[in-house]
Request: fold
Amino acid sequence: MKKELKVSPIENGTVIDHIPAGQALNVLKILGIHPNTDAVLSVIMNVRSSKMGKKDIVKIEDRELKREEVDKIALIAPNATINIIKNYEVVTKRKVFLPKVIEGILRCANPNCISNVSEEPVNSKFITISENPPVFRCFYCERVVGNAAEYLI
Ligand code: CTP
Ligand code: ZN
Reply:
């Protein structure tokens, strides 16, 4: 029997667990955490999970992510769990919820969509039509996007 991989616990911060394998870097992108960040981060990819087969985990030390900033990751990680850690203990555990309207995170797959061709800056805007699996419809041209990870701006 294979043992579960043990990763070090953190003292304080946020642990995003149950990210689909391979999506950890996209989660950081949606959170606006860029490669030059000075946040203390652990990115754990492709670890064994009893619920998911394989999964990714992101740990951000000394930061308590707010609900609004974290819910957007449901675009690509609808089953993610957000754990707030204080003094080595999980003090809050919750799921993510897709916002009804997604602005400026996804680009429309339709090259002729006004959000892609306009000279004026028109922010992309999608309406959530299914939460899990996540499916979105462009507010402007009605093109449907099911594979959000491939259309992140
Ligand atoms: N964790 C951490 N540092 C801590 C406490 C927990 O990094 N001081 C991490 C754990 O490694 C795990 C996540 O936070 O990835 C949630 O911890 P816990 O609730 O203890 O784990 P599980 O019971 O396995 O969570 P779930 O039921 O959500 O699968
Ligand atoms: Zn469109």
User: Anything to note?
Assistant: The domain at 101-151 is CATH 2.30.30.20 (SH3 type barrels.). Residues 108, 110, 113, 115, 138, 140-141, 143 surround zinc ion (ligand 2) (CB under 6 Å). The chain has a mean pLDDT of 93. The first strand starts at residue 13 and ends at 20.
